[in-house]
Specification:
Layout lengths: L7 H18 L4 E4 L18 E6 L6 H10 L4 E4 L16 E5 L6 E5 L4 E4 L5 H10 L4 E2 L11 H6 L15 E7 L5 E3 L8 H4 L21 E8 L1 E2 L3 E10 L4 H13 L8 E5 H9 L6 H5 L5 E9 L2 H16 L4 E6 L19 H5 L19 E11 L2 H14 L6 E8 L4 E11 L5 H19 L3 E3 L13 H14 L14
Helix pairs in contact: 1-2, 6-11, 11-12
């Protein structure tokens, strides 16, 4: 039996029955309802009407399948949240009124193999917690850094196909052996563990037979309770190189060089990031920094940052020399930054997995007044939304995306920025952001109008999304009939009650 659109009284009646059944089977489970639900569960960075009817706080993974089955029996929607740091894409908000399942207490690093460079984590493990553990173990391996909040979930970020910078930046592509809970009450493993081959499961990602991990990324088919991830070897030599590219016209000569650096093997694809001046100001400087206005006072400028790594000092020397030479031909200035201080001691930087959280600052650009203790975009009433399209790695495509963003963000209440990361020599993953002040009258409405305009223009250009937020379900281009039919049958099989994050990505 599929869930329909219940009335408020229906939901309340179902909730009461669910709470009774849950107390009987899981008496120790912490649950918040009504006025006890804190503001952090009710606010987001953009307008959204759905709210939690109850917030469930399981203390371990074993109780999750039971909770899901009870919710299915009660026909109550369930929306899982790992750490709630998905700012700009949905925060902690559910897809519709229903139960919110808080998985933050599932915060164990279940396995760590520093010989083979693998780790197994639960949803509550943060980037900071994992990096500190790796540091304690000698940092022979690390998780590629990212610009998001450092208290975000490593597992959830990977399942949403968030990326790090460096050769191992595709986190989801380096994950395997999922432990999945279904709303039927079932629990399954996707790797070699399903046949009891634990020794092989720890070192090999692709067992014989169908591979189904992809079904649980950016979907509402099941909840991943843990997974194994491959870590990046920490090479002894690393450097960041920042190049000033110039205006849009300069991209015509710069893009072929940047692509050649990737195809030649001089740099790894996800080691290259492009920024416009607005993105650089908002993320790397911040609105309230003294030199922020200087970055934005002139015409828009592009910059590129590249990470290079090597296992030997001679190889590092020649790698830096070749990359510097290539960049210098298309840049007015190239700055090389080592991760070592003047004494040669290695510093804690993004080059060895220490995420800095700089992108969080871009969410504050719309605020006219700096909060006393910035750090939570939801509670600080920041307006912020991401749009994440894929575009060809071509100068013309970059310029067109830049024009779309400029045309749609003329309002003085809205600050738009654009960054992009090369995932190959062919394609760029783009980070389009809009920031505004949710306390300013009319700003929410203008921001949503801009967002809709950008979404339409991206669809018209064929710039499809690679990552989705709550706002994106209504803006997805219609999938073909066969894809829709097959995905619906998969949903029926894995979530027959249809309660898991209904409508999350356009599916039930």
């Amino acid at each position: 039996m599929k869930s329909s659109a219940p009335t408020s009284s229906d939901l309340q009646s179902r909730l009461e029955g669910f709470l009774v059944a849950t107390h009987d089977q899981l008496p120790a489970l912490a649950i918040e309802t009504g006025d006890a639900i804190g503001e952090e569960w009710l606010r987001g960075t953009f307008p959204w009407t759905a709210k939690p009817l109850a917030v469930l706080h399981p203390e371990n993974a074993d109780s999750v399948p039971t909770l899901l089955k009870l919710a299915a029996d009660a026909q109550l929607p369930v929306h899982p949240i790992a750490r709630g740091r998905n700012w700009g894409l949905g925060s902690r908000l559910p897809t519709c009124d229903g139960l919110v399942l808080d998985l933050s207490a599932l915060d164990r690093i279940l396995e760590l193999d520093m010989s083979n460079g693998t780790v197994r984590v639960e949803p509550g493990v943060t980037f900071t917690a994992l990096q500190q553990r790796l540091k304690q173990e000698g940092l022979a391996y690390h998780l590629p850094a990212f610009g998001g909040p450092v208290d975000a979930s490593v597992l959830a970020n990977a399942l949403e196909r968030g990326e790090g910078i460096g050769a191992y930046g595709d986190r989801f592509g380096l994950m395997w052996d999922f432990d999945v809970a279904l709303t039927t009450g079932e629990r399954l493993r996707t790797g070699h563990s399903r046949t009891g081959s634990q020794r092989t499961a720890e070192i090999h990602a692709r067992p014989a037979g169908p591979l189904i991990e992809g079904l649980f990324s950016q979907s509402n088919f099941g909840i991943v309770l843990s997974a194994t991830m491959e870590l990046q070897p920490t090479l002894p030599y690393a450097a960041a190189m920042m190049a000033e590219i110039g205006p849009n016209e300069a991209l015509q000569t710069a893009v072929p060089v940047l692509r050649r650096l990737i195809t030649s093997g001089m740099i790894a694809p996800q080691s290259l990031v492009l920024w416009d001046s607005s993105k650089r100001a908002s993320s790397l400087v911040g609105r309230f920094a003294e030199d922020a206005d200087a970055l934005l006072s002139g015409p828009k400028q592009w910059g590129a940052s590249v990470l290079v790594f090597a296992p030997h000092p001679d190889l590092m020397k020649w790698t830096e020399k070749v990359v510097w030479s290539e960049l210098s031909g298309v840049s007015s200035d190239v700055h090389v930054q080592s991760d070592r201080d003047e004494t040669g001691k290695r510093q804690e930087t993004i080059m060895t997995g220490f995420s800095d959280g700089n992108n969080v600052m871009s969410g504050y650009w719309g605020k006219k007044k700096r909060p006393e203790r910035p750090g939570n975009l939801d509670l600080d009433h920041c307006g912020f939304v991401w749009r994440c399209p894929v575009i060809p790695f071509e100068a013309e495509a970059i310029a067109r995306l830049d024009q779309i963003l400029s045309d749609a963000s003329q309002s003085e209440k809205i600050f738009a920025a654009l960054g992009m990361q090369a995932i190959s020599s062919r394609a760029l993953h783009c980070f389009v952001s809009l920031a505004w002040d949710r306390d300013e009258a009319g700003a929410d409405e203008e921001a949503m109008e801009s967002y809709e305009q950008i979404s339409k223009c991206l669809a018209d250009e064929g710039f499809s999304p690679y990552r989705l937020g709550l706002l994106d379900a209504a803006n997805l281009s219609d999938a073909d009939e066969a894809w829709s039919a097959v995905s619906s049958r998969l949903k029926d099989a894995l979530d027959p009650a249809g309660i898991l994050s209904p409508g999350r990505i356009g599916t039930r």
